[in-house]
Amino acid sequence: MICLTTKFSNSEIVRTRDPKVLEGFDAVLDVGGVYDPSRDRYDHHQKGFEEVFGYGFNTKLSSAGLVYKHFGKEIIAKELQLGEDHPNVQRLFLAIYKNFMEAIDAIDNGINQFDTDKPPRYVNTTNLSSRVGRLNLDWMDPNQSPEKENEAFQQAMAVAGSEFLDSVRFHAKSWLPARSIVMECIADRYDTDPSGEIMVLKRFTPWKLHIFELEEEMKVDPPIKYVLYESLD
Description:
Shape: elongated
Strand content: 5-15%
Structural class: mainly alpha
Oligomer: single chain
Radius of gyration: 22 Å
Number of strands: 7
């Protein structure tokens, strides 16, 4: 992710835990035991680390979450070709954290999805963290060389980076336009029915992603009870 920024776009990725080697790097991620954005140090393993994303999110950040917290707006703004202070950049910054990044933070920090001590009813190994984990060298592989490890690491970076960009582009090209349509239809609901409880979509839109959040944001009262749209048949 950090390579998507202007500052680090041409950076070389080096894997090491050697403190002396780390000292000379422009940025250090996920190792080193230091979180200091002024020096581009983004580790989360050190004792006492409790950094969260903010904006109402309370999940402790992983190194990926730290990078997103400090560089996410820049990456999103470049994708949208807007300034970082544009409202749509802020909307996507929060939405992508909620819908993509927070799960990575939680899994990396061993935080359960539900507040219960009961064991899960099934095992889920299809999430991004699991898929990246499976790219580690198998212990039965006779070739455990550093070169082979680096090859696997490059594959993992490609998978994670691709899925992050897919999320950014989905939110930019699909999620955000749908939100605008639903917002407009909510605003026009009294033109449909004087009760204000019926919303008509002008075109098919994935409205369920947005309606509850927009009802709260737009202080819709009474709440919408019916959503109508033309059949696709």
